């Protein structure tokens, strides 16, 4: 038995992880893919990948997504043959010890509803169900995608000189403190795969949105509008404006995640041509 932890996965480790994930996805009829990048975690020194080797091969791993110190999202996969043998438990102990160093108080376990073994584990851990997220995929051929949108809203890619504006907007829109906003904005600037956009209306900055493009797939995140500009079509104009720019860049594989409790956002994305593809449950446990 060998346990390792790291904050950066090389190509060989990624290949091993993807192999375990592929077996688990087929066995448990899962849809999602694990997120291994730590560049947007609030502290890039924190180890976010934990791996368990047995019989000279990788049999189990845990990946963490920790954008803020509030909580660490936990995704775990164990080969079916090695389940109920303590692999996950050993890795989880390492995870808890690591995140406590950075004063992270909660773990948020990510589990697809069709994963029988996964649901059993979160129940055994007494992690409490908190919410679900839908992963939506953009269908450019859908009727909603073809509907036009007339708006005076402008959407522009951010430059480093926009740093202070982005931080202030994020604070107001997402009710974050200065350090939280700054960490997220700076790490997005530092990333080679991410872009940030500022939305303006009549020369007034009203919204933000970000993208991450990896292997041809674009993930939209961090979309928000100042409260006084909501409810009048600006959100739809932002989404459609972003989709237009992505299509002009020949990016067709576009996804976004939305909280199942956020019906306004969910219906907004559906009206812009997105369709529900996957569901993920989130289960919280204090440590």
TrEMBL record:
PROSITE patterns assigned: GNAT (PS51186)
One function term, GO molecular function aspect: acyltransferase activity, transferring groups other than amino-acyl groups
Presence of the UniProt keyword Transferase in the record: yes
Translocase is among the record's keywords: no
Keywords: Acyltransferase, Transferase
Residue span(s) of domain N-acetyltransferase: 1-141, 153-287
Superkingdom assignment: Bacteria
Record-linked InterPro entries: Acyl_CoA_acyltransferase, GNAT_dom, N-term/lysine_N-AcTrnsfr
Protein's name in the database: Acetyltransferase (GNAT) family protein
